[in-house]
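Supplementary Data S3. Sequence and structure tokens for construct A.
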Amino acid sequence: MLGGKNSKLKLDFLTTLKGAVTLALDPSRADATPDIEDGMIKLKATELAIDYVKTMPGVASIIQERYLATAPDLAYLAQLPPGSLGKCFAEYIEQTGFDPNYYRALPVTDDTSYVLTRLRQTHDIWHLVTGLGSSVNAELGLQAFCLAQIRIPLPILLIAGGLLRTLFTQPEELGLLLEQIAIGYRMGAKAKPFLAQKWEENWEKPLSQVREELNITIVDEYIP
């Protein structure tokens, strides 16, 4: 029994290590992030993070509901009024060339798998609403935002890896990266819980109103 548990821990560690090494070599490889996250699902830190987010207003109920939305219809969203959440999201996806459905499917079997699935499903919406763009530094800024909001271990590993990579390969960029991380963390600590939001039911709401309601203040130079 113990041997089986140890084998599972080794497998989880190897999965995490594989994703971490891939991202260290190529930060643009967003497909490596689920490898890291999947390898940390059973960590005590992940369990504590899920317990923590369930204390936030609105989060426990959406977790219990297992709310998940269908894939966004970008053609429909593009027809919504200018400045609306949906219209801005469609423009953001077109501008960046991202696939909003790129995320790896994860069977929802418990609270942890639900939270991770919902985070993956709404990752690009978080980028848009926070104003933290699509560069590597901005991605780490969003990870700092997630850390402040959720406390799951993935952002810690990604931020640490980003800092180390910048230190050794682009030290002149270290100040800018630290600034993005600081902006993201402060924003996340101040904002209302993003996990509690049913974004897909508010596509027609003005993006400016969404940000105001969630206590998001955009730093101009980081608007996507």
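Construct B, processed identically:
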Amino acid sequence: MTNPFEKIQQDNTVLSVNLNKIALLRNSRGRDFPSVTGFAQKTIDLGVKGITIHPRPDERHIRRQDARDLAELIAGYDDVELNIEGFPDAEFIKLIEETKPHQVTLVPDGLHQITSDHGWDLVNNLDDLKAACDALRPHAGRIAVFVDPGADLSNLPGICDRVELYTEAYAQAYDKAVEANDLDGDLLKDALKPYAKTAAQAQELGLNVNAGHDLDLQNLGRFLTIPGIEEVSIGHALTVEALHFGWSNVVHQYLGICSQSS
């Protein structure tokens, strides 16, 4: 029998498509259109090996039922993973117990936060993180913790399996470098340094590395010059780009970039 939590073996960075914005569009009209599971199926059919969702307590985009429906859909595939992100309160832990995703990514979001905007405080929150990971461990294939670039990860081995690098600062630096017409200058090189350092520390400690937040078709390739990025989670930018260029076209472009990673 196939182990539902068995790690996907992939030489290059895995693209995990975040479907939150599809759910947001659906919720604005009160019916199942566009369908979250329909877009998940379409995305999988295009060759994507990961689907990410981030249900929030107010269900303003992804609903808890979406998590259940996607878990059922993805259970039919041996080579596709479901990643559920969120703050590990009692309701989130219960949802993970029900859905048993391949990966859980713990994010320190506040109740009314619009989007994720910082990683965990790995000193003051360490005991709470450990308790949450212990509670989630029997119900998830692996656990990732959302971290800031430059964070000291030395206390994380034995608590989680991966870190996810919060990449907004890099994306902002990339935009400034574009404005300055200087993509090969110090601004972008300096922005990448703390990410490379944190990724290297993680790997030295036996932790794998994911990344996400504001990555897009323009800045992703440069970011993936950092060795050993296992997975990138991309949703908002991909959805906006798809409005311009079409879902299938944009997904294929992301898969092409990820295939060139080291």
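The first helix runs from residue 20 to 27. The CA atoms of residues 74 and 226 lie 29 Å apart.
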